[in-house]
Structures are given as C-alpha cells and as structure tokens.
Amino acid sequence: MEWKLLEDDSEKKQQKGKRNQQASTSQNASETEITGKLKCLKKIWNDFKRVLCVKKCYKYVNEQPEVDLDTISTNNDKLTIVFDLDSTLVFSTREKRFEEQCFMERIKYYVAIRPYCRTLLETIRPFCNIVIYSAGGRKYVHHIVELLDGEKKFFDKVLSRDNCQLENGFYIKDLRKTEYPLERTVWIDDKVKSFPFQPYNGIVIKPWIGDPKDEEILRILKLIMHLKKE
C-alpha cells in the first residue's frame, strides 16, 4: 500500500511538471506572438507618422496664386512657425481681469500680450516664416495682429476662422492651408486637438491667462532654436 501511494504521488508530480512545462511553453509562444505584433504595429505607426507629417496628402483644387520662383527656394529652406493667438500669444476677455490688459475699442475686448512675445518674434524672424493661424473671427484676428505687429514686419501670413473647419462644435486647423512645406512647418498652440491632421508637427504651449511672470515663451524659443539647427 505504501509503495502504491508513493507511485501515485510520483505520477502526480510528473503530470504537474508536464502541465507547468506546457503552460511555460504556451506563455513563451504567446509573448513571442505579442512581441511580433507590437513590432509590426510600431512599424505601421512609424510609417503612418512619416506619411502624415512629411508628405502633402493632396493638392488644393482651387487655383493657386502665382509663386515667385526667385524666392521659393529661400522660403522653403526656412522653418515655418505657425502660432495660435488666444492663450498662446495673447489673453483677451470681455471684462478687464488685470492691469496689463488694454481695451481695444474696435473689437470690444481687453487684451494683454504674453511676456516675451515680442522677444520671440524678433529673435526668430531672420530665419523663420511666421504665420498666425487662429480660430477667431477675421476682424478680431486682424486687430490683434495689428497690436502685435503694427509695423508689419513679423507675420508672413494670417489665417482666421475662415480657414478652419467646424467639427463637433470645435474649429480645427489644417497646416496645408498655410501652403508651406509640412516637413519644415511647426505649429504652436495651447490645444493639441486644434491640428488633428498634423498632430506630430506641433509643440503644445502652456495656456496663458495673465501671469506676469510667465516664461513659457522662452521655453518655446529654445525649442525653435534647436529645430533651426536640424
């Protein structure tokens, strides 16, 4: 009887060992399969990003303006920086929130310019095309741009709500509207969902709501200077 019990116990251990070995083999096979799928997905994702960010998906159907062939090479070599306005470069409210806001009679808004904004624009102007792309109305954007650039020396192009697309109550933007090469174009906005067509071309900036000690613009300036070297 004792021998029989020992035999049964030994058989149970062998069966348990086989089950553990089978489970281990199955787990290894599963991990190998998952790793393979992840590598495949990563490759597909990288290919997708490369196509999304670098290639222009289509040409505009509308007739394009004539291009100055003498300047096209120079402009294409430059970085193009596309700035949002509200909470990115300025802060606007219907009622005055703090001392630095000035009242703009024509648009009935109190507006303040973000700290270091002009320093940024003056610094990058020599080597960048600078574009304003706002979801604000045309009149509003025109007067804010006039406040930022009264001498018309900073901005190459200004786009407003007319160049946006309304999706689920939110105005989205498309960098192709700027007509600059996407591979040398970067957007700066406080909302990543503003650019669903080119999410990887962007730098998300911390929203500004009036802090006089804010230095987020200086961080953006450092990033742009780094991109300039590439």
TrEMBL record:
<keyword id="KW-0653">Protein transport</keyword>
<dbReference type="GO" id="GO:0005744">
    <property type="term" value="C:TIM23 mitochondrial import inner membrane translocase complex"/>
</dbReference>
<comment type="function">
    <text>Essential component of the TIM23 complex, a complex that mediates the translocation of transit peptide-containing proteins across the mitochondrial inner membrane.</text>
</comment>
<keyword id="KW-0496">Mitochondrion</keyword>
<dbReference type="InterPro" id="IPR036412">
    <property type="entry name" value="HAD-like_sf"/>
</dbReference>
<dbReference type="InterPro" id="IPR004274">
    <property type="entry name" value="FCP1_dom"/>
</dbReference>
<dbReference type="Pfam" id="PF03031">
    <property type="entry name" value="NIF"/>
</dbReference>
<protein>
    <recommendedName>
        <fullName>Mitochondrial import inner membrane translocase subunit TIM50</fullName>
    </recommendedName>
</protein>
<keyword id="KW-0809">Transit peptide</keyword>
<keyword id="KW-0813">Transport</keyword>
<feature type="region of interest" description="Disordered">
    <location>
        <begin position="1"/>
        <end position="28"/>
    </location>
</feature>
<keyword id="KW-0811">Translocation</keyword>
<feature type="compositionally biased region" description="Basic and acidic residues">
    <location>
        <begin position="1"/>
        <end position="14"/>
    </location>
</feature>
<comment type="similarity">
    <text>Belongs to the TIM50 family.</text>
</comment>
<comment type="subunit">
    <text>Component of the TIM23 complex.</text>
</comment>
<dbReference type="GO" id="GO:0015031">
    <property type="term" value="P:protein transport"/>
</dbReference>
<dbReference type="InterPro" id="IPR050365">
    <property type="entry name" value="TIM50"/>
</dbReference>
<feature type="domain" description="FCP1 homology">
    <location>
        <begin position="74"/>
        <end position="227"/>
    </location>
</feature>
<dbReference type="InterPro" id="IPR023214">
    <property type="entry name" value="HAD_sf"/>
</dbReference>
